Every structure is written in C-alpha cells, then in structure tokens.
Amino acid sequence: MLSPIILCVDDEIGVLRRLDFEIKRGLEDEYTILVFQDAATALKKVKELIDENRDITTVISDYMMPGMLGDEFLGEIEKLSPKTLKIMLTAQGDISVVTNIVNHAKLYRYLSKPWDKEDLILTVKEANRKYNQDKQLEEQKKQLEIQNLQLKDLNSSLEEKIHQRTKELQKTNQDLEEKQKEIITQAEVLQIALEEINRQKVEISAQKEKVEEAYARLQKTNEELQKAKEIADSSNKAKSEFLANMSHEIRTPLNVILGFTEILNNKVESLEYKNYLNNIKTSAKILLSIINDILDLSKVEAGKLELEYRTFNIRLLFLEIHNIFSQSLDEKKLDFTVDVDPGIPNGVFLDEIRLRQILINLISNAIKFTHQGSITVLVEKRPHLLEKRVMDLVISIKDTGIGIPPEQQKLIFEAFTQQKNQSNAKYGGTGLGLTISHRLIKMMNGDIFVESEPKKGSTFRVYLREVKMDESIKSVPLPNMEKKQNSNMISDDLPLITLGLIELKSLLQELEQEENTWLHLCETLTINEIETFAKKLQTVEKLISYRPLTSFIEKLLEGVSFFDIELLEKTLKEYPKLLDGIKVMIEKSSEIPKR
Asked: Closest Cα partner for 487 from 262, 283, 327?
C-alpha cells in the first residue's frame, strides 16, 4: 500500500532540508515527504498525485515566496484537495495578514519562524490524525447512507411480503376447509382400499414364495454357467497352447524342407525341375509365414507373449523398414514418403521387434492394396500433460489404394477375417496380420483406428500412449526417406550410433573372441550352430546396443528361420566388415581431445 504524502514548500533550501529531516525523524518514515522551492511546481505535482488517487494529508507552506504568496498557494490547494490540512510557516507578525490566510485558505494552523521542533512534529501528527479521522468519518457516512438505503428497500420488501403472506394464509384457510371435507370422504374410500390391500397381501405372500424359488433356481443356473465359462476358458487356453506348440513343431520340418529345396536347387540343372523347386520354396515360405502368424496369435491368446522393452533409435527403424520395401515399391512404381516429427527424439523406449512387426504388417498391406499413387508414413508427437520425458506417439500409414467399405472396417481386426468381395487369389493372406497388430498395439498401451473410403484409399492410425523418450541417443545423418518412382534402392548400410570408447573396446573384445567360431561356421554352414552363434551374439548386443551388430544378428536368424543357406553364407562374410567398422570408430573416438 502506498504511504500518505506530506508536502513542504519554501523558497529557502535550508528550511526545506530541516523540515524534511525533522518530520521524517518525528514520524518514523510513515509518510512520504515531498519538498519544493516554488509553489507552481508544487501545484503541478499535487495535480498528478490527485490523479493517482494518492492521499495528501498535510501541506506546509512558507508565506513569502516569489511568484505566488503562501495564502494564494494554500487557497489553490484548498480548491484541489479540500480534505488536506494546511499549515503556514511565516515570520509575518501582522495579525491581519494571518487572519486573511486563515479565512482565505481555511488554514489548519500557522507556525512562526523560527519554529519549535516539538511543536512542529506535534502539529504535523495532529494534522495527519485529523485527516485520517475525517477520511474514516466520511467513509462511515457513506456506509451509513448505503445501509439506510438497504434498510429502506428491506422495509418495502418486508411490507410487500407481509401483505402477500396474509393473502396466502387466507387462501390456505379456505383450502384447508375444503380439504377437511375431502379427507372425510377419502377416509371412507381408504377403508375400502385397506380391505382390498389385505386381500392382495395374502396373494403377494404366495407370489413371494414362488419368486424365491425362481431366484434359487437362477442362482444355481448362474453357478453352472460360471463353471462352464471356466471350463471353456481353460479349454480355449489349452487350445491356444496346443496350437502354439503345433505351430512350432510344424515350423521345424518346414525349415528343413526349405533348406533341402535350396540345396537341390543348386544341384539340379533342369529348368523344369528348378521351376518345380522354386514353386515348392515359394509355397513353403508362404506356409511358414502363415504358421508364424498363427504362432504369434496363439502366444497372445495363451498369455505367453512377453514384450521386451528397450531404448532404440526410431529413425533408424523407419530407415530399415524403408529399405525392406524398396524393391516392392519399385516394382509397383509407388511413391513412398516417411515424415518424422523433428520434435521426436532419436531414442524411444518400446519393444522394437514388435513395433517393427506392426509397421511391416500395415505397410505391407498398404503396398498390397495400392496399385497406383502413393503411401505416406507420418510420425507425430503428442506432448504428455504431466510428464516431460513421456509422449504419446502417433503413427499414420496413408495409402491411395482400393479402400474399405464402412460396414467392414470394424471386422478387419478379427482373426481369419478378410474384406468381403476381396479376391483371395489376387491378394492372398489369412487375415491374421491386422489381428496380431491390433493385439500387440493393445499390449503396448495403444489403440489402432482406420479411416477409409472405397476407391480413394485408407489411413491406419496407431496411438501409443506414454512412450518414454531418451534424448541421450545422438542424432545421426539419415538419407532422404522419400521414395520416388523408378528411384534406386537405398543402401542396406545403416548409419552408426555413437558409443563411448570403453563400450566400443569392450564390444570389439567380445566379438574378436568369437572369430574361431565364425571361421568354423563359414566352412560348415550348420544351421543349429549358426542359431546358437546368433543367440550368443544377442547376449552381447543386449549389454551394448550397436545397430550394425543388431542388423547382423537379425539377418542370421532370418536365414536360420527360412533355412536360407545363401543368405547365411552372405551374412557370415560380413563379420570382418563389422569388426573393422568398430575399429575405425575406436580410432576416431581416441582422436577426440578430452575436456
């Protein structure tokens, strides 16, 4: 709150300094003291203070001043601020002059020069007290006026209410007399009704016994249904476990068929026989893909599928997916664009393998059902309201394909369900891809929605909630992920993620220890031994995440899964290149000066 103002005006600077000193000391800084050497400047300041609604409690003025005498100055103060108390300092001894000042300016008091210090302080204090008292009295007066008006309104309102209430009471009395007559009549009717109620009470008692018997039967039925449900759930779980086991058992001999088909294909020279073998291989791969889908679905339904969360570079994942579909996009001459929100950090904490599976299913469908036009992948960030290091991730896959009718859009996520009127011979598939993707997204705390219009295309939108972000993974240069018609395929060499020098050396040491095993595998190409080798490298990769090593392991496991000897042989030859890449990174890291 702003402090009140005391104004001092005198043409002698020494007088002003003494006034300022003595008043401040006497009033202990409760007031703001303003001093001026001429009346005109002081009047200007008074106007400003009044505009600012500041309290000017006291004005102390000299009488003899150049330009404007004290009585004229205090008279102007009276016009501007009548409530302000005015004190005159004067050496003038003429009583008529003093009387004129008192009458003209409504002077509160005058002090002769030189003044007594105690008298000055007492006078100023008393003037301030009177100002405050007058101000309080005026406020109280206003409050009393408001209260009087309120009382007047209240009295008028009470009189009106009393008048209205009197009318209501008179009307109520009339109504009561009429009601009394009605009650007598109703009492007779009630007596008849009571007799009827007693009769119905007997009937209700009999019906109650019947309801209790029906309820007991219903309860027993519910218990039987609950037991039947438990048996059905147990049976369904057993069925899913059996299906998962059978799928796994079928996949093993199917991999052998694929492997021996590849071996026979290399030895047979007849083009006719090679064509037969290629047909066997293609059909076996399709069957293996179906079995893998059934196995995944069975694991989900049996509750045996567990997510493995880890931090990975999401931009590298989209680059990898882009590379996977490059050939298909070239063959169909489709435009392909991946647009990742710049606000999304490189590092996210999710199950990378399952997210890759979801994206491959959705993008594969988009390519399958799009004959011309484009496919666009849009990756957006929705900030979390409560946690800064968490976001909602939205991935949209939009195509210009054949589209889905509205009545079928809710059915496409059901197992073994395909769009009606869809040519199975032309598009193939079991309808499990979207079902598995839907279940996986639900497990990852997300949802998937579809927007589509026949002949205009579809948009599948995946929402993943509360995804943790990791900004420690540094940015890496990525090639342009916009795929134009007839463009060359992007190189399979993925950019490297920067690791610490200690981690790189530790990784190199672990991989060098496996060189003898690698040499042995290059000579024998034994499937089981290669699978063991890949899983051993996976243990190292989980401790030190290095993208080229992850890619190397995935290619090995893919070759093992499909019994693809050619892929295994080609992948194993990349091992020295993997080691050389780590050595180069170690050399570069060693050259960086320490801070």
From this structure: 327
Determine what percent of the chain is predicted with pLDDT higher than 90: 15
Both tokens of 331, joined, read 């063959």
pTM of full prediction above 0.90: no
Q: Phi, psi (5° rounding) for residue 457?
A: 115, 175
Cα gap 89→554, rounded to integer Å: 101
Alpha carbon distances (Å) from 440 to 311, 386, 419: 18, 26, 21
Rounded Cα distance, 551 and 503, in Å: 18
Q: What is the DSSP letter of 472?
A: T
Buried residues in 201-228 as b, exposed as e (16+ CB within 10 A): eeeeeeeeeeeeeeeeeeeeeeeeeeee
Residue found by looking up tokens 């219903």 in the block:
218
SS3 of 365-405: HHHHCCCCCEEEEEEEEEECCCCCCEEEEEEEEEECCCCCC
**Tokens matching residue 300:** 């989900």
Backbone angles phi and psi of 505, in degrees to 5 = -65, -40
With residues binned 3-state (H G I as helix, E B as strand, rest as coil), the percentages for the chain, rounded to 5, are: 60, 15, 25
Residue written as token pair 């399958």? 368
Structure tokens at 299: 């694991």
The label of the residue with tokens 């037969």 reads: 276
Specify whether the CB–CB gap between 459 and 380 falls below 8 A. Answer: no
Please give the Cα distance from 45 to 65 (Å, whole number).
18
Query: How many Å is the maximal CA-CA distance in the chain?
Result: 144
What is the secondary structure of 321-370 as a DSSP string?
Answer: HHHHTHHHHHHHT-EEEEEE-TTS-SEEEE-HHHHHHHHHHHHHHHHHT-
**Residue corresponding to tokens 């369900």:** 417
DSSP bridge pairs for 390:
468
User: Tokens 């530790």 label which residue?
Assistant: 506
Residue 385 has phi, psi (to 5 degrees) of: -70, -35
pLDDT digits (tens, 9 = 90+) for 61-117: 988 888 888 888 988 898 899 889 989 887 765 666 667 666 666 788 878 888 888
User: What's the length of the chain?
Assistant: 595
pLDDT tens across 145-196, in order?
898 888 888 888 888 888 888 888 888 888 888 888 888 888 778 788 788 8
Over residues 486-539, the pLDDT tens digits come to: 333 333 333 333 456 777 888 888 899 899 999 989 888 888 889 889 988 988
